[in-house]
């Protein structure tokens, strides 16, 4: 059924998710844009910078399961809106730590990055929960790809701007600008997001299209459950081979994402000899490639579903193909020209985007009653890479004096993700919750 006949309200919902996710990832990557200038200004080494990069990830991982549980227990719109306000305020506050002594600046940045990770934790489970409510199965991969592609679009939109801000005004101003963007989105969020049942502009045809296609329809919470039952739900998720394979695959594939969000601009400045502004513009190449790959992979997956292919083929084919291409990042070790490096990075991030269907798999396979909890667990596993990747890359660079081993590490993670989806993840189908 065409979008014209069914209505377009659901597309405004995914557009809002795209905007919020773009600002979220801009907040995450703000430290990478400021990283080289911050390192020079404070006189810290690569390993210390790696720990600052990882600070977000420590809290983000710890808070994922509680964050996902919040969406199963409380109103999704309200929880997400509060999280958006908090992470915007915390990002804004990072712009003022430069007035402190150096030791305090490092400690304050680390603690504020931890707090940003706590505040941002519910957001991706929230995206999955909202998409599961608003989109039928035949459109879910595309909707997930659109919202997920914001992680690449954020770099394309903000990296040149932030590079200019750092070079012109100093690294502290990056956080003030991004915090201001977040505050503006808080008001837009309150006006835009509603559940399908309560949206003032949805028509009967669009509501029926969502309902008949398997949309969950509500953003309101389930009845409260006690702690023993919550632990039982968690155990059921961890005992499913399919879900464990999806969770592990997300961790492995996220090594590429967190290299882009943390060390990539530093790599361009220190290894390739670019200026901060040139690095900001160069970061647009893999970002746009990832954006194009994400949309292409999502649309291909949904097209395969509409043509009658199984969910297993429709979801796994883009993932396996994309993560195989993502391993091309390791070939940067063997080329000398900046143009060749950017071409390989573009190909690698196109592949990473093409295979970014993990959240679609969460919506396809998780028990209906605990999509938020499953999403939180999925993001906990996946964002362990936010801790390990910056630290391991920092260690390898510090020990070897170059990025060669670091690039090989990222490429190896992509190949292991391919094996995980081929050998561990089984048939893609919804798992039923047991009493």
From TrEMBL:
Gene Ontology MF annotations: transmembrane transporter activity
Keyword ATP-binding: no
Classification via SUPFAM superfamilies: MFS general substrate transporter
Claim: Membrane is one of the keywords in the record: yes
Keywords: Membrane, Transmembrane, Transmembrane helix
Superkingdom, natural source: Bacteria
Protein name: MFS transporter, ACS family, glucarate transporter
Organism: Phytopseudomonas punonensis
Taxonomic lineage from the root: Bacteria, Pseudomonadati, Pseudomonadota, Gammaproteobacteria, Pseudomonadales
């Amino acid at each position: 059924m065409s979008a014209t006949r069914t209505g377009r309200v659901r597309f405004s919902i995914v557009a809002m998710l795209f905007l919020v996710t773009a600002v979220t990832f801009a907040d995450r990557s703000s430290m990478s844009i400021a990283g080289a200038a911050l390192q020079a200004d404070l006189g810290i080494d690569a390993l210390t910078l790696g720990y600052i990069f990882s600070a977000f990830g420590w809290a983000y991982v710890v808070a994922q399961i509680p964050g996902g549980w919040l969406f199963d227990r409380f109103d999704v719109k309200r929880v997400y809106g509060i999280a958006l306000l908090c992470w915007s305020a915390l990002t804004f506050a990072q712009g003022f730590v430069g007035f402190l002594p150096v030791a305090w600046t490092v400690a304050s940045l680390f603690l504020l990055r931890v707090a940003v990770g706590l505040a941002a934790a519910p957001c991706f489970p929230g995206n999955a929960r909202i998409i599961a409510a608003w989109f039928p199965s035949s459109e879910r991969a595309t909707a997930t790809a659109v919202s997920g592609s914001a992680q690449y679009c954020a770099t394309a939109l903000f990296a040149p701007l932030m590079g200019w801000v750092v070079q012109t005004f100093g690294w502290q101003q990056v956080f003030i600008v991004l915090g201001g963007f977040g505050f503006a989105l808080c008001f837009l969020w309150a006006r835009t997001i509603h559940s399908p049942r309560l949206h003032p502009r949805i028509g009967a045809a669009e509501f029926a299209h969502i309902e008949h296609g398997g949309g969950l329809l509500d953003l309101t919470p389930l009845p409260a459950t006690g702690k023993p039952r919550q632990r039982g739900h968690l155990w059921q998720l961890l005992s499913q081979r399919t879900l464990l394979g999806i969770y592990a695959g997300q961790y492995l594939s996220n090594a590429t994402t967190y290299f882009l969000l943390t060390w990539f601009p530093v790599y361009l400045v220190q290894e390739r000899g670019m200026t901060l502004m040139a690095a900001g513009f160069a970061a647009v190449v893999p970002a746009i490639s990832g954006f194009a790959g994400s949309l292409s992979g999502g649309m291909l997956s949904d097209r395969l579903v509409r043509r009658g292919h199984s969910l297993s083929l429709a979801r796994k084919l883009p993932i396996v193909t994309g993560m195989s291409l993502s391993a091309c990042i390791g070939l940067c070790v063997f080329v000398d020209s900046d143009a060749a490096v950017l071409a390989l990075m573009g190909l690698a991030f196109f592949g990473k985007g093409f295979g970014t269907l993990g959240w679609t798999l969460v919506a396809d396979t998780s028990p209906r009653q605990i999509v938020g909890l499953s999403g939180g667990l999925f993001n906990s596993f996946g964002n362990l890479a936010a801790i390990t990747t910056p630290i391991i890359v920092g260690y390898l660079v510090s020990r070897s004096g170059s990025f060669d081993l670091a690039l090989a590490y990222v490429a190896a993670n992509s190949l292991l993700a391919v094996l995980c989806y081929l050998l561990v993840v089984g048939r893609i189908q919804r798992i039923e919750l047991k009493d």
